[in-house]
């Protein structure tokens, strides 16, 4: 198997100047970048472990360790995403906004003339438009609040209003849990996903039961029906898309 992760780390190690990470730049070096021993010390791991990682041996790199590597090597946002993708790990900082990301997401949903919202990997709503807020009044506030990320699963399983709004709630709840499991895949045991699953399992016996079923289905579109307290019976066709540069996000439109 081609060692893409190790080659990527080694290439960026060799192009990272010692003085950029607070090390003296003196002495003879085969390459102008960091030695393995230096990078290992900065990341708090053994040189042997780092050598094995670069060589593609059977060692596991945690999300925390990859984050430290990305910081020491001064990786850009695209390089950091590529690193975590190669290692098949979740970036603990993948939701951090970088230069207007939040404003761009708000502009996308605002331009859609139907209920629309954007979910992150934890299924927190990170952007939505007024039409979505009116439809999901118990979940989405009229305007996004600073540091507030309304979670779709918490609303579905912890808010009694969801059972009244969503037609055929039991079937939609069953499918939603199966879609969530498919969406997060092998990352279910990593934080913050593991904490969310534990919280939901403790708060909702229904979620706990559905989670243990191990059902997996794709997040498909189709008919979605609601019984709204003010607008009456409503039917939409749901369409879900992923932004090209943010595969951890999902744009959901009810047309």
From TrEMBL:
Transmembrane segments: none annotated. It comes from Duganella vulcania. Residues 33-80 form the HTH cro/C1-type domain. This is Helix-turn-helix domain-containing protein. It comes from the Bacteria. Residues 1-11 have a biased composition (Basic and acidic residues). Residues 1-31 are annotated as: Disordered. GO terms for molecular function: DNA binding. Gene3D superfamilies: 3.30.450.180, lambda repressor-like DNA-binding domains (1.10.260.40). InterPro entries: Cro/C1-type_HTH, Lambda_DNA-bd_dom_sf, MLTR_LBD.
């Amino acid at each position: 198997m081609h060692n893409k992760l190790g080659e990527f780390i080694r290439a960026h190690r060799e192009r990272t100047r010692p003085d950029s990470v607070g090390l003296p730049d003196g002495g003879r070096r085969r390459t102008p970048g960091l030695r393995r021993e230096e990078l290992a010390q900065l990341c708090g791991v053994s040189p042997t472990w780092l050598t094995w990682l670069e060589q593609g041996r059977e060692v596991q790199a945690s999300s925390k360790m990859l984050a430290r590597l990305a910081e020491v090597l001064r990786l850009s946002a695209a390089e950091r995403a590529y690193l975590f993708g190669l290692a098949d790990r979740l970036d603990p900082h993948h939701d951090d906004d970088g230069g207007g990301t939040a404003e761009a997401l708000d502009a996308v949903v605002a331009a859609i003339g139907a209920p629309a919202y954007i979910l992150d990997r934890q299924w927190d709503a990170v952007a939505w438009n007024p039409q979505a807020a009116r439809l999901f009044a118990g979940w989405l506030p009229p305007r996004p609040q600073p540091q507030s990320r309304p979670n779709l699963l918490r609303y579905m399983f912890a808010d009694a209003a969801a059972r009244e709004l969503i037609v055929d709630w039991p079937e939609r709840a069953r499918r939603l849990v199966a879609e969530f499991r498919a969406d997060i895949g092998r990352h279910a045991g990593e934080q913050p996903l593991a904490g969310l699953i534990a919280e939901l399992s403790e708060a909702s016996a229904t979620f706990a039961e559905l989670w243990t079923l191990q059902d997996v289905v794709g997040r498909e579109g189709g008919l979605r029906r609601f019984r709204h307290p003010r607008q009456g019976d409503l039917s939409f066709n749901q369409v879900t898309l992923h932004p090209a540069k943010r595969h951890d996000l999902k744009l959901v439109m009810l047309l």
